[in-house]
């Protein structure tokens, strides 16, 4: 039986010695990577929508009274969440998920 620990150590020291993936494995890896990326995009879209709803609610409150210090802090945080989510979506070319172009 070959010494797997030594083989692993050799491959870690010199990754060029590892065999390339066969086409089926490469396709499976590509599908997995796209699904993982898609999950990040979906999370960003969801975070954007939740933050957008919170900002809309805070805007309604602003029509009646000034925001408390905590509400103002939350408002600022939600704007940051929207900016971060929009950046993720823009990088993925998925602004259409939030009504963008």
How would you portray this structure in words?
The protein has 101 residues and is mostly helical. The protein contains 3 helices and no strands. The protein has helices spanning 4-13, 23-64, 69-91. Helix 2 runs antiparallel to helix 3 (69-91). The N and C termini lie far apart (58 Å).
SSE order and pairing:
Elements lengths: L3 H10 L9 H42 L4 H23 L10
Helix pairs in contact: 2-3
Order of helices and strands: HHH
**What are the segments in which pLDDT stays under 50 over at least 5 consecutive residues?**
none
Question: What is the 3D form?
Answer: elongated
Distance between the termini: 58 Å
Q: How would a crystallographer describe the biggest sheet?
A: none
Please tally the β strands and state the result.
0
Total helical segments: 3
Structural class: mainly alpha
The overall pLDDT average reads 84
Helix coverage percent? over 70%
Estimate what percentage of residues fall within beta strands. Answer: under 5%
Instruction: Please state the CA-atom Rg, rounded to the nearest Å.
Output: 23 Å
Q: Can you summarize this structure?
A:
The protein has 101 residues and is an all-alpha fold. It has helices spanning 4-13, 23-64, 69-91. The longest helix has 42 residues, at 23-64.
């Amino acid at each position: 039986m070959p010494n797997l620990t030594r083989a692993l150590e050799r491959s870690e020291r010199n990754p060029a010695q590892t065999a390339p993936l066969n086409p089926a494995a490469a396709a499976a890896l590509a599908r997995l990577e796209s699904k993982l990326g898609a999950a990040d995009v979906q999370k960003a879209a969801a975070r954007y929508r939740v933050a957008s709803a919170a900002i809309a609610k805070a805007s309604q409150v602003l029509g009646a009274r000034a925001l408390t210090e905590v509400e103002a802090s939350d408002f600022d945080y939600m704007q940051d969440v929207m900016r971060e989510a929009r950046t993720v979506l823009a990088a993925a070319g998925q602004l259409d998920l939030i009504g963008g172009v």
